[in-house]
Structure formats: structure tokens, C-alpha cells
Amino acid sequence: MALGEYQNVKVEREAGITWVILNRPEKRNAMSVGLNDDMVDVLSELEGDDETQVLVLTGAGDSFSAGMDLRDYFRAMDQAGPAARARARWAMATWQYHKLRNFPKPTIAMVNGWCFGGAFTPMICCDLAIAADEAVFGLSEINWGIIPGGVVPKALSTLVNDRKALYYIMTGEQFDGRVAAELGLVNESVPLSELVERTRKLAKTLLGKNPAVLRAAKLSYKYIREMTWEEAAEYLTAKNDQTAFVDPERGREKGLAQFLDAKSYKPGLDNYPR
Questions:
Q1: What is the pLDDT at residue 33?
Q2: d(Cα 206, Cα 47) in Å, to the nearest integer?
């Protein structure tokens, strides 16, 4: 599938892995109205792209993203009419959490540098995240006399406990990738020199999984977080049945045969008596 060309985003392919790169390095990849529009189009194209099996979101240069572009997004929107403001808010919300949270392929945020303010939302809405030790994170809005906007506090609350989230919201202090891993914002933090290869290795692990089951597993987890225990039990039972029905690889049948019949797959049970 041929993809369009975008002014603020680069798309690179690599054997099933699609690298989506926020491309405003001179602005530390701050998210402008134009970048948000581009990302809506990029994710819409990639949703149905058979060549994209894993999506990696990152930033050009030495930044993931410095957050929302204050001049282009906020100042310009203050002077725009109601329709333009509504359209800009729609584009921001559409790609940053509606599409990323429910993207049909596995998504990884590769945080290579500055990650501030509004950039927390798309980072958190990716399924997994790897950061460089040297990356710098911060919610510095309090220092400018405003609160974190968009849905950043909501996104943060899904991963970080209240005491730690409020500490960084209320102080505006910065922290690095290692602290981000301790907080649970990212899965792990590695030296910058190892970041791309570690992300590629994780992507290749995901490439080796059954895509239909992988999609069902990640989306069902996200949905059941908002359900009661009884609702979750009913939903997951139905989802298992649905996945077995639509899976062209018949992964459930093969997996059970490997584990129960051929005994060719024994995860961590090599020495367990049978």
C-alpha cells in the first residue's frame, strides 16, 4: 500500500514494523494543528494497511515531543472562530487517544528524548513504551499558571498512582527515563544508544504472535478495565469465542494441541512433574 506524504510526519517501513515519526525537530516535535491533522490521516491509512503489523511512534531528532505547540495551537486557536477551534480539538483527540487506544495493531511508543505535557497522552495511549535513560519527562504547566490540558491527567491516572501523579503535576519537576519506568509510565528504560534496537526487538516479538489473538487480547484488556467483574467475565467469554471463530490461523486449536497433545510447548514447566 502506498502511503501519502506528510509535512509534519515521516513514515518508514521495516519488514512488518512501521515507524511513525513526529517530524518537527526544530520545534522539538511540538504538536501543531497541522501535525495533528497529519496524524489523523496517517493512522487512518495504517489501520487497514496489511504491511503494518506493529506500529512504533517516536520523534525526529532529540525529542519525542515537547507537547502542544503553544503558539500554533493555543494562541492561534484563541484567535480562530468556533468552527476552527472545534475542528482542531477533534483532530487532536482523534489521533492522540481515540485512534491510538483502539488501534487494531500493536503500538509501541519509543521515547527518545523530550516528552512534555500533551505528549504524555499519545505515549500512554500506545500499548507499550520504551524510553531512553536520557529522555526528559515533565508536566511543567503549573509553572505557566495553567493546568495540564487535554486528557493528560486522565491518561496519567491510568498508569500512575495518585500520590506520584499529583507530585509531578503540582511541582512541575522533570524526571528521566529510569524514573518513568519506576513510575510505570514506560515498560523499561535503556541507554539511548540501545533504544532503537531494544524497540525493534520488542516489535519483532510481537510480530511472532498470532495477529488476530494479539488484537483481541490487547483490546479486551482495555475494555474490561471499565467493567464490573461479572460484565468482564461475560465479555471475555464471548470475546474468546469470537476470536476462535475469526482467527484464520486457528491459533487456539494449534496452541492446545502443542501444549496438551504434542507437549512441545512448556513455558517454564520443563521440570514440573506431570
A1: 92
A2: 17
